[in-house]
């Protein structure tokens, strides 16, 4: 990314980001431990939203399968935590299913480093394989979206079905410590929160870098006119594969952090509904703006935790209506609305530069 | 021998249900490039319509008439789902043409609201529909092999739907207009076809068939607000595999998925069977990315 001239407007934006980062870092000082844990969970979701925005907002690929990538990262971390809790013995749920010995693929997860690497590598690899077999054949748009949704269905059925290896419907829970630090202690929680903030900011910067680079320009070109990009001589499939893999890796990373904060992962947390909710966060915040996606994730989850327990029925009505309203009336989300207000007089996009079908 | 015959029949039965669910989807997607995620909820509406018809018969008509409620329930489900589809098209879908992914999200929202609505009206627990007594039992073809009348009835219902769809699409004036819009929307509009009316009509008919599917599903088990979600993704896979725009593609897609699903589940188990079917579909799309039967077109997208 080139260094650009510091106009007053840029200065304000920069100040805003600094203030937001400062607020996030200082939150442990004036927020209760319970709220901090909630906030940490929301920040983990914001990381997924960033990855999702990268492929949806900037490349025009809608994935309804990000719950799976998120979940695979979470399961990798959960396996490590479970083994640390049981001291390397087969976890309790294996015993219930009659499994006496630790299965081979569980064994390396005793090492923290291996679990972390796998938590990123497995989702990335799965995304790469799916991307390779779809984008190469120009299976895209709606077809791709449906395939990702089918991936969600079969992964959750597999996780539920192979109870001896995955803990079934109950998922994996009951952890004690991480690298010897007790997960229950407030100090560990605070440290984990700060780690999440650092990861969120790093991923944000990484996404900014990707989007500002030449690679990012090609991504936006693919979104706006895939065939034109192809005729110029690029191979869109390669770009789509790379960005889809990157996005899945980010989701896996977020999943690992999520498990550390929440202390449980089960198939219901990565099914169809959570996956499509992730898309809603990005849609509400504003696809095509990173800050919008992250804020959308945080705000939606905050609203959900506030209202869904008090009015469970009203919440579902509200969420359903939100889908419709956002898609029909504000396709660029809240960030788009703010942008419209601010830049209405300053800059009017010429008609030919505007994206005609933002999601096609 | 009997085992294979029974598996074959099971496969046929699953295929027929998939076909009934996917039929409406294939039409709306093929014609309008709109992904209707609320299709599952239209199935649910059809199922609850059957439930209501049953209750009406129970309450207001003599018991001897009860067995015939199902004859009325099939058209009733069709009509009610048809009306819901028409309302949905006129109030929402028409603003989303040319934005398939957006239509997917918006209709998902509609589905969520409809599900919650059903939960508020009928309650969250499943309700049971008593199937008419003339569908109890089955046809005995040899020792130990019994083909249940219910499943045979569903297969017959699917064939009836298919035949009427065929006559509607290929042998009627409305169908001709529909095919014209499907092939070249702008040209059809230039020649005086009201594409708006064709769209609304087609969407409503697709929804009506979903209602019939819901009616058929009441024969197989209790129904609940989230009935449709079990079938919707499989139905979409049928559309992806079969290709859009032709009935025969949908038929082949549904038969393929239904048969292979039964086969794999028989060989392995339920969860691994689903994985294998998915792998097969992705592998198949390597060979024919547009599905089994693709409409020939010279346009790029």
From TrEMBL, chain A:
GO cellular component, one term: plasma membrane
Transmembrane segments: 12-32, 38-56, 63-81, 112-135, 142-161, 167-184, 191-211, 241-266, 278-303, 315-338
InterPro entries per UniProt: ABC_transp_permease, ABC_transptr_urea_perm_UrtC, LivM-like
Domain of life: Bacteria
Keywords per UniProt: Cell membrane, Membrane, Transmembrane, Transmembrane helix
Matching Pfam families: BPD_transp_2
GO molecular function ontology, one term from the record: branched-chain amino acid transmembrane transporter activity
The UniProt record lists the keyword Cell membrane: yes
Membrane topology: Multi-pass membrane protein
Subcellular localization, as worded in the UniProt entry: Cell membrane
Keyword Transmembrane helix: yes
NCBIfam families: urea_trans_UrtC
Entry protein name: Urea transport system permease protein
Species of origin: Paenibacillus prosopidis
TrEMBL record, chain B:
Primary localisation category: membrane
Record GO cellular component, one term: plasma membrane
Record's protein name: Urea transport system permease protein
Family statement drawn from the similarity comment of this UniProt entry: Belongs to the binding-protein-dependent transport system permease family. LivHM subfamily.
Localization per record: Cell membrane
InterPro entries on file: ABC_transp_permease, ABC_UrtB_bac, BCAA_transport_permease
Membrane topology: Multi-pass membrane protein
Keyword Cell membrane: yes
Regions crossing the membrane: 12-31, 69-93, 105-129, 149-169, 203-224, 230-254, 266-287
GO MF term list: transmembrane transporter activity
One GO BP annotation of this record: amino acid transport
Assigned keywords, A-Z: Amino-acid transport, Cell membrane, Membrane, Transmembrane, Transmembrane helix, Transport
